[in-house]
Amino acid sequence: MKVLITGISGFVGSNLYPYLTKQNHTVCGVSRKKTPNNKIYSYKECDTILFNRQEVIIHLAGKAHDLKKTAKEAEYYKTNTDLTISLYDSFLKSNAKVFVFLSTVKAVADKTESIITENTIPNPKTAYGKSKLKAENYIKSKKLPEGKKVYILRPCMIHGPNNKGNLNLLYSLINKGVPYPLGAYKNTRSFLSVQNLCFIIQNLIIKLPESGVYNVADTQPISTNKLVKIIGQETKTKERILEIPKPIIMLFAKIGDVLRLPIDSEKLEKLTETYQISNTKIKKALNLKLPLSTTEGIKITIKAFGKN
Fold this sequence. Notes:
The structure is a single chain. By secondary structure, the chain is an alpha/beta fold. 43% of the residues lie in helices and 12% in strands. The protein has eleven helices and nine strands. It has helices spanning 11-22, 48-51, 73-93, 127-141, 166-175, 194-207, 224-235, 246-259, 265-272, 280-286, 294-307, and strands at residues 2-6, 26-30, 40-41, 56-59, 98-102, 149-155, 158-159, 192-193, 212-216. The protein has a seven-stranded parallel β-sheet, with helices on both faces. Helix 1 (11-22) crosses helix 6 and helix 7 crosses helix 11 (294-307). It is globular, with a radius of gyration of 20 Å.
């Protein structure tokens, strides 16, 4: 199939491009980075004429959650909402048959005490989640022409080679032999290996199930304490998990908010929150089992960290 990927130079795009190429798809991309490659287009070229030459549009480009908190709210809506609207309008006018939009579970909830399903009523709190949800709602508000399919994917935290985020921080600490001090927190959270995400996208554009919203996550959620043990095993480091009382940890996190210590309130929440996603709908729609378990996917990521 002829596939166009926006954000092809990003984390997911740089993994999806070779994956789909190996599956014998003809892949081109869109990127903000200038390149002499005649298979890479600019966003100004993303119009009906370009889309007419494609069968599948996979829209990965977007502004991710800013851990440094330096991004302005308007930047999220410009990239996550306005760009998506523009691309989707071009898709509707074009001959392309499939549109895949990579949204986020943060469009549903930033915190949750229950397992998130596609029926969970969205109530995002951040500009990141709100801007993605606004794009979703626009897509769902448009009548889909006969013969076209649209898929809105809501992944949880994606990890894999070249990944950047809190998993890197955790890896760095454990690899250096630093004791993990948050053992008192007994959480369970969902992860998503980029390999499983690529597998799902490949099957979506081939099997073409019913259009709609689909959560994407590895099947088995795990605790951060187990994650620490996996990192220790893969790095051959004797991991040490300390159960420091939560009030003390929270005090250090608040100090970290001011002094920029390795742990602050946001990092503490990300590492210790319970955040579970159901992937039942997507597995049923595709009638498949994901190729990697949560543990297998994380091991691949940790090995990649070691190589880098």
